[in-house]
């Protein structure tokens, strides 16, 4: 049981609510501070990390639009066209958020499986 805590506590490569670095997928195994570039696949891994950063920025923008749409909805004073526009803003932002999260997950899965092979 102690191994479980020390193994995951010592893993400084994992990021949950932070942006990945551009070298996220090209570090040496079990050492996040050493960057290894060995071939053309590493260039694609760098591109994947940059895409993941951009997708996380897009997700944050979508969250901002959800907040903006909610504010517009609250201040619409029951005017039907303002309510419809605010609701459409929220729906569009939610769709964009889902697409950004799914795309970032797919890129993370593909880049992780390529970097370990």
Query: How many beta-strand runs?
Result: 2
**How many structural units, i.e. domains?**
1
Distance between the termini: 29 Å
Radius of gyration, taken over Cα atoms and rounded to an integer in Å: 20 Å
Structural class from helices and strands? mainly alpha
Give a short account of the largest sheet: 2 strands, antiparallel
Beta strand %: 5-15%
Number of helices: 3
Shape: elongated
The helicity comes to 55-70%
Sequence of strands across the biggest β-sheet: 1-2
Q: Spans of 5+ residues with little confidence (pLDDT < 50)? A: 1-11
- Give the SSE string: HEEHH
Mean of pLDDT: 83
Walk me through the topology:
Layout (H helix, E strand, L loop, with lengths): L1 H8 L17 E2 L2 E5 L4 H35 L5 H37 L1
Antiparallel strand pairs: 1-2
Helix pairs in contact: 2-3
Give your account of this protein's structure.
By secondary structure, the chain is mainly alpha-helical. It has one domain. The protein is built from three helices and two strands. The chain has a two-stranded antiparallel ribbon. A hairpin with a 2-residue loop joins β1 and β2. α2 (40-74) packs antiparallel against α3. Residues 1-11 have low confidence and may be disordered.
Q: Brief description of this entry?
A:
This protein is mainly alpha-helical and about 120 residues long. It has three helices and two strands; from the N terminus they run αββαα.
